[in-house]
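User:
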Amino acid sequence: MSKPSVHFFRHREALKLCKLLLLLGGLLTPVISHADVRLPHVFGNHMVLQQEKPLTIWGWATPGETVTVKLDQVTQTANANAKGEWKVVLPAMKAAGPYTLVASGSSTVTLDDVMIGEVWLCSGQSNMQLDIASANNGKAEVAQANHPSLRLLVVERRWTPEPQRDLSGTWKVSSPETLSAGGFSAAAYFFGRELNDKLGVAVGLIEADWGGTRIEPWTPPAGFAAVPALQQESENVQQGIPTSPLHQARLSQTLDQYAQWEKAARQALTAESAVPPVPVYPDELRPPHELQQATTLYNGMIHPLAPFAFHGAIWYQGESNVGEGRLYAEHMKALVNGWRTLWGQGDFPFFFVQIAPYKYEGKQEREAELWEAQAIAADTIPNAGMAVINDVGNLGNIHPTDKQTVGHRLALLALGKTYGQKDLVYSGPTFKSMTVADDRLRVTFDHAGGGLASRDGKPLNWFEILDAHEGGFVKAEARIEGDSVVLTAPAVKHPVAMRFAWSGLAEPNLMNAAGLPTGAFRAGERPKSVWSGLNVPEMKDYQLVYDLDLTRLGAAFKYNVDDHWKIQKPFDRIAYLLELEDTHQNTQAIYVSMDAFTADAARIGVPVFGSGAFFQQNVTNLNVYSNVKDIVTGTGLTGGNIEFWPNNYGGGNSAQVPNASSETLDFGDQIFDPADGYGSMQVHNHEARQTLFAINHWREGSRADIGIGNQPTGSPDWTFAKNADSYRTMRLRVLVRGR
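Assistant: Predicted structure:
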């Protein structure tokens, strides 16, 4: 390698000279020049300011300049700081108008037709964004939209890496002309129109939404930090903020790595040897750089609105978060806490829409879990409320067009909970309690609203109950008795739990006399002992060795209970109990016991590399109990064999297992290297041509292979199923019987 040429040094010196000239130029140029008085775009002609709250007015001017703000007969002054920022707070005013707002200094800003009334922030994704013309009877609604005291502001859709101070948008008076020209959120419009009519004051609506977005981009950093369940997400956000200690610590570590690299590179330059690769700049230190990343829409569309005073917020979002289940309730808490922290005006009302039923591909039960999360949010977030719309959805359209009902139910929540209107039913029936009496369940409701009823006059639907011993929910007969519903099913003799509308396809008919529907919910618990309900008399004679929550599987999982070291006396039998619960809350379970195939309790668990477990052999006196259809059950069965190893394996029947295929991965396979490979934990009944249960590829965690019975398609022994994430609950217990 040649040494650097003289041109290299000249280039470096030239760069230093350029930097010096730029620095001197910056020192000679004034930092801030004269600036006109300016207000952010959330202020404008035709706007509505919130009644009965202090009104913060802010903007920019020349540093040190005195700015005077006048609204009606009220005047306040402020001096712009060194950054040119100024702010005044006007006293609370009653609903009235129109007024003129004037901000004056070296120049003057005049805003006309300003009303004092009720202001609401309206946010979410595409169902909030869907405009009036696209709703039911859209053309007629637009043609009748002449409401002079209903004012509308659409925030321009924009995501940014850092919080912004201003936005783009213009206040408009509701009219056929303005709505034809630009459109506005249908759900928000129908909500605001009803408030305008019922309250008799001006209403201002600020629409800030973006179709297809998750909840995380709308959430401020402070929101994530306030929710313990989102600690990791909060840390991820903090690492992208240059002022945060986490960012600075990680950046310092990175700079040390660069310094070490530079030292090594210079040594390589001198030694004329290869330079080591440059360390990669950590992606987590970058600010948000994609739309769906946390805080991006908060930065660009919500932060610029504060501290503009409003009364409350409505929210219609969740479709893009279907699949995360109860975690969505934590995200809702983060969103609301974050916004409330930003505005600093207490626990302002926050009302939202429970998303409508829809044919989500493969996610029907996950939508029910999201509904549950939304209900939890409504119950646990102070001053919140939820509008249920499972009776006005469209299973074939993720954007149901009956936004009139959506807006009306949001308005009912505001009128009843915020504005205190009496004798107003604003909620459908909600679960209160459940009691068990013999072979029936009684479910009692709050918000019966004059009595429970069937929306279509038909028997109540979408109720299911669970038997303590059988496992699996079954359809229930439901009968209204006062403010309760009594549930029974011929096949359920010992009911312990129930659920309602537990499918994304559910359009249930239970409502109250006011016509408001009931949202999805569930209640009760199965016994905490053997929750599958298998009746296995011999289990009382066995001792637990291992207990493993299979959701903990991974490259280095740990047992929930590991008592193999307590097994000091000989044992003559080994048993395995595998219990699975799918997203429907249906349970599958199997209990298999056999004569001991080893005397070492350390080798009877999952055969991870290092355990010394390696068994491909027949087992005798197989006892099988299961609630899975087609599993051959019984005691003293003679066709048992096990395949326990950490290795890779193939379809060759090297052990000559009777009835096994030499090509298909089933109950007779051939072992290959590496020794620490795919991994198999399988118990079979080769006489019945059945895999009794399989746990394979455990290092993959949620993508492990787990199943009871033969896999319906693919390899009978579940190899390559990658299906562990299809179960809500998975539990393996390993037991022994002492001699």
